[in-house]
Amino acid sequence: MQRKHFIKSLAGVAAAALLTSLGGSAFAQGTGKTELLWLGQASFKLTTPGGKVIIIDPWITGGPKAPAEYKADLSKLGKVDAVFVTHAHVDHIGDAPTISKMNNAMFYGPADMMTPLVTLGVMPANLTHRFNKTGYVTPVPNVKVTAVAAEHSSLYVWKNPTTDKNESHPAGEAVGYIFQMENGFKIWHMGDTGLFGDMKFIAEHYKPDLVLIPIGGNFTMDPVDAAFAIKTWIKPKMVMPIHYNSNPIAKGTLAEFEAAMKGSKGIKIVAPKEGESVQF
Length: 280
Known about the structure:
The chain is an alpha/beta fold and 280 residues long. It has one domain (4-275): Ribonuclease Z/Hydroxyacylglutathione hydrolase-like (Metallo-beta-lactamase, Chain A, 4-Layer Sandwich), CATH 3.60.15. Helix content is 25%, strand content 27%. An eight-stranded mixed β-sheet has the order 1-17-2-3-4-5-6-7, covered by helices on one side. Strands 8-9-12-13-14-15-16 form a seven-stranded mixed β-sheet. Helix 3 links the parallel strand 4 and strand 5 (82-84). Helix 7 (198-206) packs across helix 8 (223-234) and helix 8 packs across helix 9 (254-260). The two termini are 19 Å apart.
């Protein structure tokens, strides 16, 4: 049984009330809560208030901290409605092609990542959707996902079935995503990123309620840089550290992030363990 943390977002409640005042139906808003199941690293199973399931950056069968039940059997994720990947590094793209094809679910990602997946035969064209920064999609009714900037790289490693050798293929630019739920609640999944000044612009323009921020260091921000971004530029109601505790090269820890966040006011740190769910 997974331990659940229940968090009420005033912003989400206010957004739902606004939709109601504008005549939005209960179906459009979703009658449930937003739920995030952390699958390790940057991987999540996102269940919207309307009950739709979106998988993000699913490094599961190869993920050292992914829950055993999902590592053994990806079908235990249940019915998946859409798959999103921020960039092509293995700890993000992971099982995305497999999950997409298993569920006949659309696979969304940066345009120049999706193209080689199709041309190499990894994905069928009819299950892929290409978009880029500030572009948005509606993967399920009344849910909007906008691609935003990330300061990172992207490379796809593919084993050629003819030569049985790995090949490296350029995969465009990494992105983050703003997920806006049926009731207006917004989550910024940063993917992998270092510090960049437009974090402030993204926060001011999209106004995320919850930010999923990498803290591991080496490949991304470390705990101190992540705390700087949250306290100085972003200032969300809630923050969840991700992309730590899986790769020994990325040494940042939750304790270090919590220490660096001391002195911040009004920002709640949400910190589930791998395999735990949180609700908003």
